[in-house]
């Protein structure tokens, strides 16, 4: 009996894990309504064959696979048809416009002022006069376009020319080099060894090491403060 429960649990877990991966990597707050509904139903269905040993395992697997196929079909059709996508997901709603708050839009969304202010604060703004547009997206996320006077400064707005940059790439964790990332950056372990030797830092004491396209290396030892090193690397890789 115990072994049966363990086996059924492993099978159902593996199936659900595989199907969720196929459905895409999204956080709960980023899901469309139909995706959230399908995910919740799959989670509920998965518990039944785990506990009910009298129920044939296939009777629990078939509904789960059916819902996963339904999710795929709905996603596929919504990608092909704009009308179907609007019907399935709805469309973004403007809750703040240049004239102020749109009360009809808030009523349509069953949204109160506390919800609105919480969403605005989540975007980094605290005063309504700073907001030009606030839009409720179809996944329930509030996005904000600030008025020009309150928009964050960037290099373009102040007339500064900056070189394009790539995100840092991890070269080592827990003292072990990540070979596929070394290939991407066209570096080798000798390069890392040389930088660590200058710092008198053994590999085994490196918890994390990354480098960006301008050659700046970030090193976090197992113990102690992080270290930033300027190297002669100039982003020969392509990532």
Secondary structure elements and pairings:
Layout: H1 2-23, H2 33-51, H3 57-80, H4 82-89, E1 93-97, E2 100-101, H5 103-108, H6 113-122, E3 131-136, E4 142-146, E5 169-173, E6 176-177, H7 179-185, H8 189-198, E7 206-211, E8 216-221, E9 227-230
Antiparallel strand pairs: 1-2, 1-3, 3-4, 5-6, 5-7, 7-8, 8-9
Helix pairs in contact: 1-2, 1-3, 2-3, 3-4
Give a verbal description of the structure:
With 239 residues, the protein is α+β, with helices and mostly antiparallel strands. It has three domains: 2-86, no CATH class; 93-150, bsu07140 like domains (CRO Repressor, 2-Layer Sandwich); 169-230, 2-Layer Sandwich (CRO Repressor), CATH 3.30.240.20. The chain is 44% helix and 17% strand. It has eight helices and nine strands. The protein has helices at residues 2-23, 33-51, 57-80, 82-89, 103-108, 113-122, 179-185, 189-198, and strands at residues 93-97, 100-101, 131-136, 142-146, 169-173, 176-177, 206-211, 216-221, 227-230. The strands form two sheets. A five-stranded antiparallel β-sheet has the order 6-5-7-8-9. Helix 3 crosses helix 4. The longest helix is centred in the N-terminal third of the chain and has 24 residues, at 57-80. The termini are far apart. The relative contact order is 0.07. The model has no long low-confidence stretch (mean pLDDT 87).
């Amino acid at each position: 009996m115990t072994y049966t429960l363990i086996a059924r649990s492993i099978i159902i877990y593996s199936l659900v894990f595989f199907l969720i991966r196929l459905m895409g990597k999204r956080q709960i707050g980023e899901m469309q309504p139909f995706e959230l509904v399908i995910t919740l139903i799959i989670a509920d269905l998965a518990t039944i064959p785990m506990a009910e040993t009298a129920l044939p395992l296939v009777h629990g697997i078939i509904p789960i696979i059916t819902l996963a196929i339904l999710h795929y079909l709905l996603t596929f059709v919504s990608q092909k048809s704009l009308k179907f996508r609007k019907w399935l997901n709805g469309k973004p709603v403007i809750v703040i416009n240049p004239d102020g708050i749109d009360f009809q839009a808030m009523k349509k969304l069953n949204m109160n002022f506390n919800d609105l202010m919480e969403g605005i604060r989540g975007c980094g703004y605290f005063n309504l006069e700073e907001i030009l547009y606030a839009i409720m997206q179809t996944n329930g996320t509030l996005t904000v376009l600030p008025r020009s006077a309150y928009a964050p400064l960037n290099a373009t707005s102040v007339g500064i020319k900056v070189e394009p940059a790539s995100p840092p790439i991890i070269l080592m964790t827990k003292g072990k080099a990540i070979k596929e990332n070394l290939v991407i950056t066209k570096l080798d372990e000798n390069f890392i060894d040389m930088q660590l030797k200058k710092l008198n830092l053994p590999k085994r004491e490196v918890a994390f090491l990354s480098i960006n396209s301008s050659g700046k290396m970030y090193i976090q030892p197992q113990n102690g403060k992080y270290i930033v090193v300027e190297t002669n690397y100039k982003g020969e890789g392509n990532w």
